[in-house]
Amino acid sequence: MADRGASALSLPDDWPAHADSVLALNRMGTFDWDLGTGLMTMDARAHEVFDVLPEEYDDHPETLGLRVPPGEARRLDAMVSQALKDGSENYGAYFRVRCRDGTLRWTHTQGYIRRDETGRPRRIIGIVRDATPELAESEAHSRRLMGDDVRLDQSSVIQMATAALAHARTVQDVIDVIKDTHGLTHLGATSLVMGLVEAGRIRLIAEGPTGSFVPGTDVTGIDEPYPMSEVVRTLSPRFIESPEEFAAGYPILWPHITDLKITAAAYLPLIVQARPIGAMGLLYNDREGFSAEERNILVALGSSIAQSLQRAMFYEQEKDIAQGLQQAMLPRTIPSVRGADVAVRYRAATIGGSQGRDIGGDWYDLIPLPGGRVGAVIGDVQGHDTHAAAVMGQLRIVLRAYAAEGHTPATVMARASVFLHELDTDRFATCLYAEADLATGVVQVVRAGHIDPLVRQSDGTCRRVTVAGGLPLGLSAEFGSLEYPVSTIELDPGHTLLLCTDGLVEQPGADLDDGMRTLTSLIASGPEDVRRLADMLIDLAEERGGDDDVALLLLHRRGMDAPQTGGRLQQHVASGDPEALREARRMVRTAVRAWGARDRADEIVLVADEMITNALMHTEGAAIVTLRSLAGGRRLRVEVEDSSSALPRRREAGDSGVSGRGLLLVDLLTDDWGVEARGGGKCVWCEFEVAQAT
Predict the structure, then answer these.
(1) Residue 304's pLDDT band (boundaries 50, 70, 90)?
(2) Nearest to 516 by CA among 451, 431, 433
(3) What angle do CA 339, 414, 637 make, to 5 degrees?
């Protein structure tokens, strides 16, 4: 019951600070919803409309879930979201609120959407009011015009139930529809009981009024003397038309429910394809007997409910299988990392605002690497289905394998992209791979269409780290662009690296940059412990809901308790790529500082640059630059590998020559150097004695 066609509210900019007295006279409450913070303030009258005490409401709209039934909440969320997206200035709707005493009453709301100069929604202001008298008067008028038998008109009741059940996706949704809509009211029933057939027994899933549960009936046999067992056994409805008939037919059950004042009951088998899947009972306390027309209505209603239940059961089974598949694809355990604290979290997407969960392609991984290094991965496969989860699992495994083989981060990403392109799928994936040397704090990052990482420093401040990136996995191979630049960052002791998927960042009505700024603020004000911080962030995603899943990985570098040996960094430098050459130089400078070789920094950088330049100038292919920290940090080794088997040779540059002095510099500035054969190519290496790292 929406009335979005209503005229826009004429409200001042500072409303509801100066609410018109007309609102108070008409018993209307006001609200002001800040879409940036998500907080919605309400006045005292609005609290009364929702039947909540001021101390019970914390300005978060989710708190009203205590009063708004799930089906109504989903309908309202969908309507408001649509109004925000399609540029509407206002919306209006009728919905129900469940009061403290359990009764339902109709409520009406109308909101006016305030947008900024770019058209982005920033604020919603509006009113809420109790609409029960209005709708009751309208319904009474309709009954006077059409007669009392309209309430039990077969076609209208079945159509209403079928329309409401069409949106039910889970078994609980079906129960909520029957309980929370006008279903029971139109049927004149007081309460509902329902059970599902499982392994030759009936499991109770809806027990009637609060406090009416009969001990021992949560699971009953089909052959036991209960009305639901009887209708499942006989596949025929059972209409009980008086208390005396109930007591005589079911003497074991009747003494436990006499306080319910039941005067009649209708028990219906729920049958699909000639097979009973359950049973339901409608209990009455203000009537006796059922006419032939009423019996037909109830039998038809039972058939509609059975179809919806079957659909919901299939959906839940498929969802369980999908979630089981996804959980199997994610790492079962995360290895402990010496010198670091790690926290990972995953949250499945919310289906249509309900508590059901959808499957997605988000994943995380932590890969132990030689030399005390570790690879951290975050990624997101396109789509939210079983296929996305299957692709995610395959991609996670091959990416882990490429990393464990010792390939450079750029090569790992490029090979993963080729794999996904050659896979029989039309899906692509975004991904970020960070290879961290926890002994030195040097982190090499490659990004394939993914959002940037964040780093929280030891003083609590948080910043977004802008990382050069390539195309998403699968697309880069398709378009022939497999270049993934490597960025180098330093993770000092006490710093935390945060990788996440866009489900944690993106919010309706806000762009990605706004979401990143909001996230950095939350992280800066969050707890220091990474596990508690991860819990806080995933709880935030849970409260916000949304149709995207969330993966999260936090890597906190502890103090210098890690061994200072075995540090290793590697960079791929493509021929004719000046940016890769600059990044390699930056990696060398970063490593020199981190590994305590500052006294020889200029020499090391100069020699490494000369070796890289020689490899690019005198061979036809790319170069692979590797830095190693040896002998407990007392020795630093630089290796430049290329695909040419021709050995370097010394040349006399002459007085006016501009080249030919490369090997002379290497020989003069290093403590040792040499050349090694490497398969189809060679490796030129040199070593420097440096002060022991502290």
Answers:
(1) confident
(2) 451
(3) 50
Q: Residue 26's pLDDT is what?
A: 55
What is the model's pTM?
A: 0.52
- First vs last C-alpha separation in the chain: 70
DSSP structural state of residue 473? B
Q: How confident is the model at residue 624 (pLDDT cuts 50, 70, 90)?
A: confident
* Tokens at 509, concatenated: 């009505």
Compute the distance between CA of residue 673 and CA of residue 682 in angstroms, rounded to an integer.
13
Beta strands in 390-525 (DSSP E): 429-437, 442-448, 454-456, 462-464, 487-490, 496-500
CA gap 610, 604 in Å, rounded? 10
The dihedral region occupied by 216, where left means phi > 0, alpha psi between -120 and 50, and beta the remainder, is left
d(CA 319, CA 304): 23
Element (H, E) at 48: helix 44-50
pLDDT value at position 208?
Answer: 67
Average pLDDT of the segment spanning 240-245? 90
d(CA 181, CA 160): 9
Instruction: Look up tokens 């049927």; give the residue.
Output: 187
Q: Is the pLDDT of residue 9 over 50?
A: no
φ and ψ at residue 19, rounded to 5 degrees:
-60, 140
**How is the chain split among helix, strand and coil, in percent rounded to 5?**
40, 30, 35
Residues 6+ apart with CB under 8 A from 533: 343, 496, 523, 526, 527, 554
What confidence score (pLDDT) does residue 105 get? 83
Alpha helices in 88-220 (DSSP H): 132-146, 154-165, 171-180, 183-187
- Say how far apart CA 78 and CA 62 lie, in whole Å: 15
- Cβ neighbours around 323 below 10 Å, total: 16
Of residues 416 and 677, more confidence is placed in: 416
**CA–CA separation, 433 and 407 (whole Å):** 12
Residue type at position 94: Y
At 249, which helix (H) or strand (E)? helix 243-249
Q: Are 644 and 682 in contact (CB under 8 A)?
A: yes
The token pair that represents 259 in the structure block: 């306080």
Would you say 169 and 132 are in contact if contact means Cβ atoms under 8 Å apart?
no
Mean pLDDT, residues 461-486 taken together: 84
273 close to 235: Cβ distance less than 8 angstroms: no
Using the predicted structure, report yes or no on whether residue 377 has a pLDDT greater than 50.
yes
CA 602 – CA 300 distance, rounded (Å): 87
Q: Which helix (H) or strand (E) holds 314?
A: helix 292-329
Question: What distance in Å separates the CA atoms of residue 204 and residue 228, rounded to the nearest whole number?
Answer: 10
561 pLDDT higher than 80: no
Residue pair 13/110 in contact (Cβ under 8 Å)? The answer is no
Cα–Cα distance list, 517 to 35, 119, 226, 512, 533 (Å): 15, 20, 60, 9, 17
